[in-house]
Design a protein that fits this description.
mainly beta
């Protein structure tokens, strides 16, 4: 796996670029290309990191 997904670690905040309505998500685990994320409005989702590049959120707007 390359790109941003390769640096994701548990606890990091992300957004799914194709599903903005899912809201902010917290990475739960990354095992190989499978990234488990708990999203505000979609719950726990396993994302295929080979198909979707998640967008890391480094600062949250207040």
């Amino acid at each position: 796996m390359k790109g941003v997904n390769a640096m994701l670690e548990p606890g990091m905040m992300v957004r799914h670029p194709a599903a903005p309505d899912w809201g902010l998500g917290q990475v739960q685990s990354r095992i190989g290309h499978r990234i488990t994320v708990n999203f505000e409005n979609a719950g726990k989702v396993v994302v295929n990191g080979l198909e979707v590049e998640l967008e890391p959120i480094f600062e949250q707007d207040s």
